[in-house]
């Protein structure tokens, strides 16, 4: 009995009848070979015709999966070249915005070139605008392109400045609404329009930021000025200075100046309110300027605190050469009376050259070597 029970336990397990037939060897090969479909023709087109890297082309190719021929991409490339864009510029545009190859030339691209030319941009400038900022070719003509180009042409005042800043920034990225809100916020600070326009022309990115970042910048100005608002005429330059100098760098420069001069935070704040652009100089150069003004020009710490504009003057191209020229005059016995060296380094260039170089170049010919700026201005 025990043996029969054991035999039954070891007997093969009975499986239910098959519901489906076994897959054929052919079916098995479909799942095991890992065969890939050949790449879409646009992948090779993007590499050979448009200059994209194989990786970039492979990434962009799925957008063109519905195309059966290169007719539309060919038309787009031909149109862009017909507008004065060089081959390299066309390739750069396609690399930035591959989907432009799907555009309808007559309905989408041509009206954009026509629109910017209607604003007074010459053919070459119109082409360069789109080469510098290809995303503009995706903008609606009336909703985005024209308002943004018009805004900057009006504010910057010339096509030359428009092109200059397009080459350096994403000038056309920001909506006119955002830019106008930022301008309004700055006007509410009491900044005159003329000063505001001048600052934006020097650095358009001042208004190319979110309102939150602009408010933070205004807060930094208030802190740097010690809670005392700068004059309306200087407020823009305080904003301009701190927009270009990060908070950490500003604090380091403040520490360098206060240590070199032995001045208080309140005195430094007063210096910044009157001549904020001195913070553009590196820390080491600020220390060198303080030492030169104190030791060579004879201007004490108090004089520098009262005249912070001195720290904005070039040491190697202005202050040092002028001091050498005046010392040369004194060494030759030229009577220049009691010349105040602070006045010497502050004089406008034309007045200094006339008063100290041209007037005495016959007596001291080496003046033109000591002050080569005079020769550069054609005053020999």
TrEMBL record:
GO MF terms listed in the record are: nucleic acid binding
Q: Which residues cross the membrane?
A: none
Against InterPro entries, the record matches this protein to: MTERF, MTERF_sf
Keywords assigned by UniProt? Transcription, Transcription regulation, Transcription termination, Transit peptide
According to its record, what are the GO cellular component terms?
chloroplast
Q: What is the superkingdom listed in this entry's lineage?
A: Eukaryota
- Please indicate if the UniProt record lists Transit peptide as a keyword: yes
Q: Write out the GO biological process terms.
A: chloroplast organization; DNA-templated transcription termination
Which family does this protein fall into?
Belongs to the mTERF family.
Q: Identify the PANTHER family for this entry.
A: CGI-12 PROTEIN-RELATED, OS04G0637500 PROTEIN
Name assigned to this protein: Uncharacterized protein
Q: Which organism is it from?
A: Triticum aestivum (Wheat)
